[in-house]
């Protein structure tokens, strides 16, 4: 089992009151009470930090007061105290330190942690927390270690290489934050034991090959038998080897190059 050690994270105290909300566990059930995600349930109680993805307090500088852990995401968060008295959480990028000053807006300097519209950013810049619709708040590149790159600008469109390698068009009025999302080592975590999975709200997962034929297409047979068919769900939906994106998805017009080569 491996864990991450970050001496810069705030420890031993509670998060900022008023910027947290209690997380309710659905147990994988939808609004009708039916399980739509299997093997979900239990887990430790969590207080989710209300992260500011819009960064709409333009022109107001703020200081980084602390770097904190957020149980609701893989990235760490930074608590910002603004000069107008406001306090907000933002995603903590690589290189952001306690005491640094950040600001958002079209006239903000190009520095790590600052949020600017794409038309104000230099080509080649690494960015995260990118809006897909101007004013809607960041939606793209928000996980630990994620970063996109601004490749080109032409008219009202900017071309961005996504973390997956896909090249996509965004409106130049969309805001993005400069830098790469921190906590890069998150991908190296080894859960190590079943109990740690239960803390995260993940219940034991049952393999299809140990079930009966009436319960799963992989079930049945003598001993450890091969199912004789490609991996699938209990309802026969293929699990690997085909694309799940809709052929006539209206957002396909924004994709310049797919993540696994080819065009369109």
Notable features of this structure?
23% strand, four-stranded antiparallel beta sheet, globular, mainly beta, 264 residues, 15 strands, 2 domains, SH3 type barrels, Ribosomal protein L2, domain 3, seven-stranded antiparallel beta sheet
Give a quick rundown of the structure:
This protein is mainly beta and 264 residues long.
Task: Give an account of the 3D structure.
With 264 residues, this protein is mainly β. It folds into two domains: 166 residues, SH3 type barrels (Roll), CATH 2.30.30; 56 residues, Irregular (Ribosomal protein L2, domain 3), CATH 4.10.950.10. The protein is built from one helix and 15 strands, in the order ββββββββββββββαβ. It has a seven-stranded antiparallel β-sheet with strand order 7-14-8-11-12-13-15, with no helix packed on it. The chain has a four-stranded antiparallel β-sheet with strand order 5-4-3-6, with no helix packed on it. Strand 9 and strand 10 form a beta hairpin. The longest helix has 6 residues. The protein is globular. The mean pLDDT is 92.
């Amino acid at each position: 089992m491996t864990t991450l050690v970050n001496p810069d994270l705030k420890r031993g105290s509670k998060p900022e009151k008023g910027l947290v909300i209690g997380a309710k566990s659905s147990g994988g059930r939808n609004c009708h009470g039916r399980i739509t995600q299997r093997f979900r349930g239990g887990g430790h109680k969590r207080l989710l930090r209300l992260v500011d993805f819009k960064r709409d307090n333009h022109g107001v500088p703020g200081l980084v007061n602390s770097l904190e852990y957020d149980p609701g995401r893989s990235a760490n968060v930074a608590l910002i105290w603004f000069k107008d008295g406001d306090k907000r959480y933002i995603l903590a990028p690589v290189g952001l330190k306690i005491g640094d000053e950040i600001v958002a807006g079209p006239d903000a300097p190009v520095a790590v942690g600052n949020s600017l519209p794409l038309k104000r950013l230099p080509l080649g810049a690494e960015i995260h927390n990118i809006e897909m619709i101007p004013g809607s708040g960041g939606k793209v590149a928000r996980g630990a270690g994620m970063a996109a790159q601004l490749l080109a600008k032409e008219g009202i469109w900017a071309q961005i290489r996504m973390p997956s390698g896909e090249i996509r068009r965004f409106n130049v009025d969309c805001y993005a934050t400069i830098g790469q999302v921190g906590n890069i080592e998150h991908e190296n975590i080894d859960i190590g034991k079943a109990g740690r999975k239960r803390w995260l709200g993940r219940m034991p997962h049952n393999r299809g090959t140990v079930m009966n034929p009436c319960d799963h297409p992989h079930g049945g047979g003598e001993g450890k038998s091969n199912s004789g068919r490609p991996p699938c769900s209990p309802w026969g939906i293929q699990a690997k080897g085909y694309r799940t994106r809709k052929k006539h998805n209206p957002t396909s017009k924004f994709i310049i190059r797919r993540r696994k080569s080819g065009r369109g």
